[in-house]
Amino acid sequence: MAVQPLRTDQPDPHREARVDLAAAFRWAARFNWHEAVANHFSLAVNERGTQFLMNPKLVHFSRVTASSLLLIDAEDGETMRRADAPDPTAWGLHGAIHRACPHARCALHVHSKYATVLASLADSRMPPIDQNTAMFFDRIVVDEHYGGLAFEEEGERCAKLFDDPRKKVMVMGNHGVMVIGDTVADAFNRLYYFERAAETLITAYMTQRPLRVLSDAVAEKTARELEDYPEGAERFLAELRAILDDEGSDYRA
Questions:
Q1: What pLDDT score does 2 carry?
Q2: Exposed, middle or buried: residue 204 (CB in 10 Å: 0-12, 13-18, 19+)?
Q3: Regarding beta strands 176-181 and 169-172, do their DSSP bridges make them parallel or antiparallel, or are they unpaired?
């Protein structure tokens, strides 16, 4: 079913979701996670998770605004015939995720530097060598079968890898990273810490010295403690929005 356009005399029911997602784009650009005018973020807005907001085609992350976000239906076969059709790889990857993974409410895909370095290694696992890397202990799926640009067939293949709800990070071998979450705050916080963890790990590898790896028990305990840490993700996004507001950013427009 095609998404019905919002009447101009009605308030937007997804207004706050749009503002959150627009803020995430602006900060992804500041953190240097953007890739020219490629890569995409999406956020489900209906109960089934099949209708989602996503950035418009070929717009730089630093210029995305709340109102510019597209409202897409993952089950609408006419999506790519729309006048404002999304990027075909965005439709292929994010459309597949929102059709197949109702638990993936928010999906963030980037080619950030250290995550992509990790994805380029023969062994793309993340051993728990500090608190941040431990956050992802047994919570990562590694895609080892890159098949080219994420058009529909490749997107459907990738979406099937999120079959374990505990694993909310996909290291996309030879490609980049996809992070999912319950909200924009949840997913963005996870993406932030994954890139930090990847930076620590890659830097440690560069020393060519033995790694001090945590035990499985301590790593799992740390991961659970971080998952249960109160309000961290929500406050992080709230602070990022506050900084943009203080600067007079137009991300809310």
A1: 56
A2: middle
A3: antiparallel
Query: Domain count of the chain?
Result: 1
pTM for this entry: 0.94
CATH number of the domain where residue 205 is located: 3.40.225.10
Q: What is the pLDDT of residues 152-187, one digit of tens each?
A: 899 999 999 999 999 999 999 999 999 999 999 999
3-state secondary structure 91-124: HHHHHHHHHHCCCCCEEEEECCHHHHHHHHCCCC
d(CA 44, CA 50): 6
Assess whether pLDDT exceeds 70 at residue 148.
Answer: yes
Q: Please state the rounded mean pLDDT for residues 87-95.
A: 97
Closest CA to 218 of 129, 102, 126: 129
In the block, which residue shows the tokens 């459907």? 156
Tokens of 124: 């793309």
Residue 11 binned pLDDT confidence (cut-offs 50, 70, 90): confident
- For residue 122, the tally of other CB atoms under 10 A from its CB is 6
Which structural domain, as residue segments, surrounds residue 210? Answer: 15-245
Q: Is 212 within the bounds of a domain?
A: yes
